């Protein structure tokens, strides 16, 4: 009995180096080259979808982006995911532009520059929304978060211009966007982008305070 009590238990390496319960490994950040590939694919995809439609070959997009098809499919396993990513990237650019313009431009110049970018975003949605509608059945769920951020951006820009005295107090931010969207959806109007960009200056001029 004494001999049994005097024996020591030898700890194995696995016992002495056990990890604390519940601790998860830290998420890895994407490698720089992988991030560059993703950004390049999105850039090429937007141009390809605009030029050839949402059914353009994904293999062609990969080739034009300078990556193999496997790299494209690792980032975007389906056409649906690539279309969503292109649209969300355009919306993210709008949100980031609002902050950048607010810091580097006067209120009215910032508002004008942002509205011109918004015209480009309309083009992306015109192309992508019908495709996602056929793939998902309800693209509103995809666009909801992006729309909320876009509205926050235009409200911030208009509020800043009103505060500076450059814009009338009764200007409704969403009215500016609805006017541009209306031009975009006029039937049989292929050069709507040029009309919409001219309309930006008309809206800016008409929204200034009367003296």
Notes on the structure:
By secondary structure, this protein is mostly helical. The chain has two domains: 32-77, Arc Repressor Mutant, subunit A (Orthogonal Bundle); 83-211, Tetracycline Repressor, domain 2. The chain is built from ten helices and no strands. The protein has helices spanning 2-6, 13-16, 32-52, 58-65, 69-75, 79-104, 107-136, 140-164, 173-184, 192-206. It is elongated.
Number of domains: 2
Compressed to H and E, one letter per element, the order equals HHHHHHHHHH
CATH fold-level name of the largest domain: Tetracycline Repressor, domain 2
Global morphology: elongated
- Biggest beta sheet summary: none
| Count of DSSP strands | 0
- How much helicity do the residues have? over 70%
Radius of gyration: 26 Å
Low-confidence stretches: 1-20
CATH superfamily of the largest domain: Tetracycline Repressor, domain 2
Short description:
Helix 3 packs across helix 4 (58-65) and helix 7 (107-136) runs antiparallel to helix 8.
Which helices and strands, and how do they pair?
Blueprint: H1 2-6, H2 13-16, H3 32-52, H4 58-65, H5 69-75, H6 79-104, H7 107-136, H8 140-164, H9 173-184, H10 192-206
Helix pairs in contact: 3-4, 3-6, 6-7, 6-8, 7-8, 7-9, 7-10, 9-10
Q: What descriptors fit this protein?
A:
Tetracycline Repressor, domain 2, 0% strand, elongated, disordered N terminus
